[in-house]
C-alpha cells in the first residue's frame, strides 16, 4: 500500500487518472467492436508522429523561455524543407534527409531571430510566442502562393502556380523512416520501428546535451538566472541557443509527422499545432520552468492515447459517426486542462 501511495505521489494524480481512463478504454474496446490490436497500433503510430514536436518544447522550458507557443515557426521551416524535397523529386530515405537538411539552416535562422525577439520581452515570452506562431502562419499563407515552385505534384493545376493546400508524399518518402525495421502482427497491428528509433535517438541526444556544460548552463539560466549571471553565463546567448534548438526540433518533428501521415499540410495546417504539443508536455508532468524526457514520453503517449481511443470507443457505443466532434471536444478539453496547470504552477 505504501509503495502504491508513493508511486501515485511521484506520478501525480492527474497522470494516474488519465492512465487509468486510457486503460479502461482499451479494456472496453473489444466489447464495443473496436479491435484492440488496431487501436493500440494507431496509438503507437500517433505517439511516434507527435513525439519530436513535443520534445521541441524541452529546451525553451529548461532555459526559462517558457512553453514554445511559437512552434509553428519551426514547423514552417520543416514545411519549406519538405516541399523543396518534393520539388527536387528526392525519394525514400534520401528524400527525407534532403528535407531535413534544407529545413535545418532555415530553422536556425528563424530560431535566431525568434530568440532575439524573446530576449527583448522577458517575462512575456509565451504571449509573444503565440503571436509569432500565428503571424508566421498567416504570412506563409501568402508565400505558399508566390514562392517559385513548379512541380506538378504540388502546384494548382488550373493556375500552374501556387502550392496546393495538401501535397502528397506517397510517391516520394511516405513511411520512409517508419518502415525501417517495421513489423506487422496479424492484419491490424503495425509497429513503426524506424520512427520510434529516430524519436529515441533525438531523446537520447537531448538527454546527453542537457548534461553537457552548455546544457547545464542553459538549465541554470532557467532555474536561477541571478546565479547564472554571477557564474559568468551569457543569459541571452543561452536563451537564444535554446530557441534555435527548439525551432530546429520543430522542423524535424513536422517532417517525421508528414512521412508517417503521407501529406504535407500547408496554409493554415500548422496554425494550432503548438497547443497539442504544449498540452502533452504538461500532462506528462512538466511545468513552465522544468521539463524532462520522461515528461515528453509519458505526456505524448497519454495525450495521443486518449485522443485516439475516445472517439473510436464512444462512436461504437453510440452507433453514430461523431468521431470528429468527439475528437475536437477531447483534444480541446485536454488542452484546456493542461493550460490551467500553467496558471497553477505560476501562481
Q: Could you give a short description of this structure?
A:
It is found in: Cell membrane. It comes from Mailhella massiliensis. The protein is mostly helical and 347 residues long.
Characterise this structure.
It is a single chain. With 347 residues, this protein is mainly alpha-helical. The chain is built from 14 helices and 4 strands. The strands form 2 sheets. Strands 1-4 form a two-stranded antiparallel sheet. A two-stranded antiparallel sheet has the order 2-3. Helix 5 packs across helix 11. It is globular.
Which terms summarize this structure?
14 helices, globular, ABC_transp_permease, disordered C terminus, two-stranded antiparallel ribbon, ABC transporter permease, transmembrane transporter activity, 3% strand, 4 strands, 347 residues, mainly alpha
- The arrangement of helices and strands along the chain is HHHHHHHEEEHHHHEHHH
Distance between the termini: 33 Å
Which structural class should the secondary elements be placed in?
mainly alpha
Strand order of the largest sheet: 1-4
Strand content: under 5%
| Strand segment tally | 4
- Shape estimate: globular
Evaluate the radius of gyration. Answer: 20 Å
Q: List low-confidence stretches.
A: 343-347
Q: Helix share of residues?
A: 55-70%
Overall pLDDT, averaged?
Answer: 87
DSSP helical segment count:
14
Largest sheet: number of strands, sense, barrel closure? 2 strands, antiparallel
Main location: membrane
Protein name: ABC transporter permease
Membrane topology: Multi-pass membrane protein
Subcellular location: Cell membrane
Amino acid at each position: 500500500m505504501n509503495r502504491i501511495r508513493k508511486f501515485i505521489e511521484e506520478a501525480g494524480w492527474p497522470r494516474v487518472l488519465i492512465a487509468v481512463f486510457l486503460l479502461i478504454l482499451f479494456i472496453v474496446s473489444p466489447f464495443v467492436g473496436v479491435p484492440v490490436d488496431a487501436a493500440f497500433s494507431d496509438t503507437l503510430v500517433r505517439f511516434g508522429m507527435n513525439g519530436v514536436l513535443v520534445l521541441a518544447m524541452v529546451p525553451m522550458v529548461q532555459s526559462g523561455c517558457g512553453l514554445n507557443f511559437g512552434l509553428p515557426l519551426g514547423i514552417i521551416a520543416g514545411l519549406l524543407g519538405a516541399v523543396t524535397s518534393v520539388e527536387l523529386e528526392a525519394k525514400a530515405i534520401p528524400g527525407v534527409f534532403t528535407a531535413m537538411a534544407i529545413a535545418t539552416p532555415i530553422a536556425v535562422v528563424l530560431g535566431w531571430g525568434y530568440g532575439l525577439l524573446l530576449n527583448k520581452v522577458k517575462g512575456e515570452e509565451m504571449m509573444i510566442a503565440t503571436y509569432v506562431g500565428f503571424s508566421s502562419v498567416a504570412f506563409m499563407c501568402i508565400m505558399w502562393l508566390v514562392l517559385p515552385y513548379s512541380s506538378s505534384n504540388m502546384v494548382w493545376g488550373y493556375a500552374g502556380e501556387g502550392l496546393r493546400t495538401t501535397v502528397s508524399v506517397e510517391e516520394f518518402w511516405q513511411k520512409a523512416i517508419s518502415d525501417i525495421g517495421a513489423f506487422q502482427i496479424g492484419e491490424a497491428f503495425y509497429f513503426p520501428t524506424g520512427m520510434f528509433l529516430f524519436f529515441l535517438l533525438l531523446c537520447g541526444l537531448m538527454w546527453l546535451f542537457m548534461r553537457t556544460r552548455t546544457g547545464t548552463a542553459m538549465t541554470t539560466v532557467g532555474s536561477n538566472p541571478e546565479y547564472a549571471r554571477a557564474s559568468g553565463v551569457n543569459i541571452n546567448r543561452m536563451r537564444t541557443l535554446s530557441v534555435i534548438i527548439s525551432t530546429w526540433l520543430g522542423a524535424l518533428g513536422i517532417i517525421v509527422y508528414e512521412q508517417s501521415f503521407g501529406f504535407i499540410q500547408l496554409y493554415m495546417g500548422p496554425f494550432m499545432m503548438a497547443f497539442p504539443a504544449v498540452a502533452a508536455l504538461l500532462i506528462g508532468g512538466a511545468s513552465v520552468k522544468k521539463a524532462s524526457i520522461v515528461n515528453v514520453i509519458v505526456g505524448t503517449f497519454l495525450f495521443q492515447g486518449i485522443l485516439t481511443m475516445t472517439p473510436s470507443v464512444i462512436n461504437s457505443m453510440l452507433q453514430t459517426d461523431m468521431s470528429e466532434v468527439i475528437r475536437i471536444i477531447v483534444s480541446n478539453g485536454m488542452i484546456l486542462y493542461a493550460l490551467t496547470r500553467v496558471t497553477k504552477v505560476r501562481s
